[in-house]
Amino acid sequence: MSAYAPRSERKPLYVKVAMQPALHGCWAVNISETGIGLIATPHTASEGPHEGEDVELSFSLPDSGEHIRVRGLVRWRHDAAGAVAALGVSFRAFEDSDGVKLARYLASSHLQVVVAFATEQEQRLVSAALEGVAKLHFAAIPAEAHALVTRGDAACLVVCGQDEEQALALVESLAARRADADPSGAGPPSDLASRIVYCAPAAPDRVVALFNAGRIFRALGPAPTREALHQAVLQAGREHGVRTEQWRLALELERSLLRERALSQALPAAPGGRGSEEVGFRSAAMHRVMELVRLVAPHRVAVLLQGETGTGKEVLARILHRLSGRGDVPLVVQDCGALSETLLESELFGHVKGAFTGAVADHPGLFVLANGGTIFLDEIENTTPNLQAKLLRVLETGDVRPVGGTQVRHVDVRVVAASNKDLGEEVRAGRFRADLFYRLNSFTVDIPPLRDRPEDVPELALYFLELFNRTLRRSASGISPDTEDALRAYAWPGNVRELRNVMERSVLLSRPGEVVSRRLLPPSVGATLALRNEPNGDGSLRARLERVEREFIREALERHGGVLRRAAVALGMDPVTLGRRARRHGLWKADD
To answer: Which of 38, 288, 407, 591 is the most buried (most CB within 10 A)?
Structure first.
């Protein structure tokens, strides 16, 4: 039996998050050892980080109060109507032992339940009903209940006691607090709020009104049975998590639809006079890739695209879709690493009403929506063995059965999958099903990283310059020769996605009509060329660090017009220290 590696489990976490670059009203939604889901209320769509950018996050864990500091990468971002943004961030590096702190928190965390106003007898009942499945927090007064509910991880609030007015007042005050928080960005939206199980006395018409208004999740009456309380709290916890993920999923789907609509519009003419699907593909390696794409496009064969992150797998999937004869039907895109197994299965195959808590209507699923067209499954290596078996069945038979349903629907869908890893190695390691791999492996296209095809870099850079001139309403007039040299010399660990972000930044920083020069590039890009330009110099670590330091100081001084104090602020240095180092490198004179 294969030993499949478990996926990193996501758990709810609703705490305020400090982010750099700054993003207003940023809250965590869920978290795992490898990433975090965020929501925010930015003042403008350009505020904060965008897809492919590095971020620094800082937040506190509930209960322990331990502080976590971590650097990460924005995997996706969507700004929806109503000034709400959703982001998915993957973790890259924790500060000190913060990764261990987070792992310890995730391993020990349980369903968090707040119990308000319970008598001694009710406390014994709740403890017996939820023993081993939830961590209980008891509150004797409204202020304690408010503090526990808003600390960030309480999925359910059980309201007990014999004081009807006190119990109802707590429910109403929590609802009012959520309503006040939503438009200001001072707290998470109401979908993230703790579900309320009401076990206190109240008139039937009052309970019905609260239930219809969505202010309570269940009403069990003043003397619930142990089993009824157990089931109600577990259902509240499940519904809490599902609704949160559905809320984020709706934003991500909206993002995908808007992206598809934008891509269907005319792109700027490609440099070199070729079609937009071949932009930047000047290297022999990418010519071979395009030959393979054109060869397989007309045939209903599953295609596997393999390559490092940022190499343009989704771009190639769109080209393949356009050349397949199915271009009149939209391409449906799904990131398999963005959702838990249950939600991903529901999203791909659909579900029927009542299949699970929160399934308030039938959902057809992406395979049905893509019928007659193409579905692109990105990061397919993140799927679980159970889901891989169901994907294999769809590939082999075309039959799709929704979650909770009995009827099977036949679909005609071209499947294009992508992976950042070598799936053959994943099979040998027991993390991916061999039968699905061999089904996908009938036609594999390996996409080379950008560092292996430097001849593609200048034309891609020019293409992105024209693209961002149009979208950002700028007028950068070209790229200087030394900038082209710097772009070619850089290793591009983020591949085409990183080059795209560098050019977007450069166009934003450029003055009207300015040629993009090295001063507009990030220091790390220019520093690589500085090292390569001195092949015969001292190769020691100290000498290399000196050359990198000189490049960073030179770039900062150029960017800030030679004003030492401004350059020092940008570099986070003391002006006196910066002046001393700049003079040592010959970049500054004492009388300047």
So the answer is: 38
